[in-house]
Amino acid sequence: MTFSVARNPQPASDADREAVLAAPGFGKHFTDHMVRIDWTVDGGWDEGRVLPYGPISLEPASAVLHYGQEIFEGLKAYRQVDGSVAAFRPEANAERMQRSARRMAMAELPTELFVESLRALVGIDEQWVPQPVDQSLYLRPFMIATQDGLGVNAPSSSFAYLLIASPAGDYFSGGVRPVTVWLSTEYTRAAPGGTGEVKCGGNYAASFAATAEAAAHGCDQVVWLDAFEHRWVEEMGSNNLGFVFGSGPGARIVTPALTGTLLPGITRTSLLEVATELGYTAEEGKISVEEWRDGCASGAITEVFGCGTAAVVTPIGAVRSADGEFTIGDGPAGAGGPVTAALRERLVGIQTGRVEDTHGWMTRL
Ligand code: PLP
Ligand code: COI
Fold this sequence. Notes:
This protein is α+β, with helices and mostly antiparallel strands and 365 residues long. It is 25% helix and 29% strand. It is built from 9 helices and 19 strands. The chain has helices at 14-22, 63-67, 90-103, 111-124, 201-205, 208-216, 266-277, 289-298, 338-351; strands at 3-5, 33-40, 44-45, 48-52, 70-72, 75-79, 85-88, 136-145, 158-168, 179-184, 221-225, 233-236, 240-245, 252-256, 281-285, 301-308, 312-321, 324-327, 362-364. Strands 1, 2, 3, 4, 5, 6, 7, 8, 9 and 19 form a 10-stranded mixed β-sheet that branches. Residues 74, 235, 238-240, 263, 265-268, 308-309 line the site of pyridoxal-5'-phosphate. Pyridoxal-5'-phosphate (PLP) is lined by residues 74, 235, 238-240, 263, 265-268, 308-309. Keywords: Amino-acid biosynthesis, Aminotransferase, Branched-chain amino acid biosynthesis, Pyridoxal phosphate, Transferase. This is branched-chain-amino-acid transaminase.
């Protein structure tokens, strides 16, 4: 598909863009353009359009505004050593968005069109792709239900797919540092048969009360536990988790298994492979809150990290809950552990073209 292009008549000045790229933060600034592709039950996908970034107009009765029929993705484009731009595993994000669409009774955007939309936006807004290694262009594809009407007897018959982009630095404030997390026992994120394993906005809407609780306890983010016993560790508010048992080349990394209630992170799957390449053992498993606490106390668990597109690989230094607090490794004031650092370095190396991409994970945009 070719995309029609309506250029932004008032793009950011070079000075304004440079100021943003000097300290992008996360999700605060957006590039000059966006992509939109509309879908109707009768006509399928319409032509793709590159438009100036700006407000969109919706009927007040649009389904997305009442019933939250919305899905999204998150992936990054990286400036490569040779100056070109490449995205990390965009096909995997396209496929996850299709799974999300099926669960939420929405239209499936074909993988090729998804990747073409990234090319259309990054092509026109290329100057917004920061220099590596700790910065990238965060791409946020999303889809909303646009049919107006308040009945709930059928899913929406029209959708709009949009893509926006935002230069990104560190997700957690204060740079790469061990974060402190809050174990949520009052709230539940997801139960079997629900929407926990897809990326719909409602999962996040329902998480903000726990996020606020975490912040009130001085924590950076919430850790979700299983719905039945509030005992088995699932994932964090914006990323998956990895537990490091032992140290050195013999270290074993365990990430909570996909039970249907946590998001199958693309970073998580990739790290299982990267970890093996680095000589560690990597596996999926079941970790309870007690094993986490006791393992940290005995030294069996040496490091714990969060992993996701936005969070990259972030060490966790302390865990708080209604029962108290325990620390991991050298704690929140430390530097995080060597296995976490090695995983991060190798992953970012592949993403920025500094380490050979033997997996074919990078797609030139
Ligand atoms: N879990 C949640 C709840 C997330 O929002 C994300 C981020 O997308 C992840 C896990 C990690 O997924 P990925 O590695 O594909 O970014
Ligand atoms: C991502 O890492 O892409 C996410 O979606 C996290 C986001 C909810 C901030």
